[in-house]
Amino acid sequence: MAVPINIQVTWLAHGRGLSLPAYQTAHAAGMDLLAAVPEDQPLELQPMDRVACPCGFAMALPEGYEAQVRPRSGMALKVGLSMPNAPGTIDADYRGEVKVLLINLGREPIAITRGMRIAQMVVAKVEKAIWSEVETLPETDRGGGGFGSTGA
Questions:
Q1: What is the full DSSP assignment across 89-122?
Q2: CATH code at 44?
Q3: Does 142 fall in a domain?
Q4: How many domains does the chain have?
Q5: Which of 16, 41, 52, 149 could crosslink 99 through cysteines, CB 3.0-4.6 Å?
């Protein structure tokens, strides 16, 4: 098992009292993110509405890492709560509040309440790439075959 990395975090006033992102099982890849909305003012998402839901904290990822924010599959299946930009990317140099872009793809309104698990965050290493212009590319069996070219 890899040694966990240290992520510095600071609470914003409206996030105090919530739990830090947490893994729900021993082998989970993602940590649940919680909604930092006022207790008495849930966010009401009508069908097809979008909102940037606050999580109430800012963080400093180590250089060479990113955080990917993804929908929670159970919420997507049960009520249609998803993310229009999935996965969202948080770069190591971002220091603003972590927010989750949510969309209601269901047929009924969804109430986002304080402390509700709204998304998951996966921390991953980032590989840097450089471009190398060439006249021709190496051949492969697939070649230029695109969508559906390898079967159904």
A1: EE-TT--SEEEEEEEE-SSS-EEE-TT-EEEEEE
A2: 2.70.40.10
A3: no
A4: 1
A5: 52
